[in-house]
UniProtKB/TrEMBL annotation:
Signal peptide: none annotated. Residues 88-229 form the Clp R domain. Keywords: Hydrolase, Protease, Repeat. This is Clp protease N-terminal domain-containing protein. InterPro entries: Clp_N_dom_sf, Clp_R_N, CLPT1/2. The keyword Nuclease does not apply. The lineage of its organism: Bacteria, Bacillati, Actinomycetota, Actinomycetes, Pseudonocardiales. It comes from Saccharothrix lopnurensis. Gene3D superfamilies: Clp, N-terminal domain. The keyword Repeat applies. GO terms for biological process: proteolysis. Pfam families: Clp_N. GO terms for molecular function: peptidase activity.
Amino acid sequence: MVTTPVQLTDLIVAVATEHGDVLGRLTAAVRLSGELDELGDHLIGHFVDEARRAGASWTDIGESIGVTKQAAQKRFVPKESAELRPSFDRYTDRARRVVVLARHHARFSERIGTEHLLLGLLDESGGLAAKTIAALEASEGTTRLVLLNALDPTGRQPPAQQLFTARCKKALELAVRESLRLGHRFVGTEHVLLGLLAVGEGTAAEVLMATGVTREAAEAHVVAAIEAAISRGPRPVRPGA
């Protein structure tokens, strides 16, 4: 049996220490409960992804979590759609603009892919993701150049409805997971970059790895930059970009 690493007493103390009045504590407890539910979902998702990489079938995975194969796939396999879930409440303004820019870059395409998301990150030049890419890429502008050469140059009429590809949706899901894993309360452009790299497939991941932007190096750069920002400022809140 797995020992629960987080004890109820620890959570009670954490809430009580942060808030002096009883109603403030209750509000904080409700918020924390939602965060724990989200952590639980991503914990399961992490090990589902691990099982898939190890060759486990969806039937095996479904049996392990007590659902059918179809229910497991519905829950954990992103599908192309025009909507994105979960909501962008955690996202910084810069990270939200990246998604808007991705949609703009895909305006003549039927689908919004990881390549468009990466273009959005590069366009949001003040964000930590763009700065991380600039610090790690083989030479200045290499990532954008390689990415533009990889895009489909075929001109099309703007579609009536754009669909986010499954990989693009997975990258945004993993962006939230990367934020939670690093203990951050926000999702910035840097987490979107880490999400693209965590997917490991698709145009964006291939371009990034080809230009020297690896997942390990990107995470190290992001963590160092955020720690430096916290040490410089009096308020260690939402330091990401």
